[in-house]
Amino acid sequence: MATIRVRQLLDPTPEQLDSVAHTLYEAFKDETSALVANEGNADMIRPYQRAGASIAALAGELWIAGYGDDDYAGVAAWIAPGRELMDRCAASAYLHAAQTTVPVYSPAHGSAGMDAVLASFSPEHRKWYQEYLIPRSRAQLEEAVGEGYAKASWYLLILGTRPDHQGRGIGKMLFDVIAQKASAGRVNLCFCAVTEDNVSDPLYESWGCVRRGPKREFSNCWGSYINAVLIKAP
Prior knowledge:
alpha+beta, globular
């Protein structure tokens, strides 16, 4: 029987990022949270997740699990300690490309694909994303763990497994790679878990994670979901 191998994608090629995006699309295409974030358009999930994976490759580490070099059964995207997904600094060129006046991502992260994603949103949804989702997410994180905690931690941005490979422990294998590295370096892990029915916590608690702060509901006309902040201390 073939063995699952976990490996880091260093300086991923466009083709590798496409494969990552396809795996994450399959993992999240039926999730309400993905539709809420992408204006109800399932076709946008692929570029949205590709951008997130690209950001992780730029500002952290991107890991995959599979049964061979061309098999992408699961993906984990991490932001490294000292780096941030979101950046409050103004970036005029990026903001012009995204047709917005509210900075959300750094210029480098914008060039990783988030600029194109934001530009594809309607003005109404872009406003919701930048003036509701991002600030509310940041506020929840800071309320739960304090300002600067997430930046000092390994931050799990994305963790997804293809539906036909779920239930095989692939998610935990991908999680444990950085959990072991963080423990050795005495660094915390931090992430936000999305659940539509409040049953996520037991899974992550079995991985040694602890929920911090209250859960929060995020919603728009496309639906709603529950967000929880979790940490794992070394």
